[in-house]
# Entry
Amino acid sequence: MAQVVWTTIALASLTTLILLMVAAPLGWWLAQRRSWWREAVAAVVSLPVVLPPTVLGFYVLIALGPESPLMALLHPFGVRTLAFTFWGLLIGSVVYSLPFAIQPVRSAFQAIGPRPLEVAATLRANPLDAFFSVALPLARRGFVTAAVLVFAHTVGEFGVVLMIGGGIPGRTEVVSIRMYQLVEALQFGQAHRLAAALVTFAFLVLFALLLIDRRDSAPPP
# Structure
């Protein structure tokens, strides 16, 4: 079980780190652009919310398979497939949790409004300086929310990780897969304990988000 928990934590942590780095520029672009195709990009980003996880996992599995044109680029380096590996699992998790990072960050950037950036411009800050010194600090609430949601969402993944990773012990087996295996093996005592731990984790995540929202919404003293 320790190895399963470690694999889950490693997967969730790396997914969160990668998506926070992706969410900063992409969320900013979506918040600032006004062109019609901005919404087309936003729709693509949000697809994992409405697609069945098995459908998404199937296409990611095909993309990571040995016959994929994408993987053909890695064949000269001795890598034929990333399917049923931890790194393939990580790619699938990043794709699956993408909207849970982008949406809070985009909303946080939109909530800033143009005024702070206009003030930064009058102080001769270039756009890059304004982004790092003004926009990012003001959007920190969105980044915290995104980090919590992505981490929790990754811990609870099932369909995508099963399709891409297959639940190989010591390599791609995560907590959600172990839960399924325990029930399938009729080991209900262990399944109850693991389910209780996941319910407690979910409650603490939601409680933390509510506390963050309450703190940030409170009027200044």
In short: The domain at 2-177 is CATH 1.10.3720.10 (MetI-like fold). The CA atoms of residues 22 and 102 lie 8 Å apart. The chain has a mean pLDDT of 86. The two ends are 47 Å apart (CA to CA).
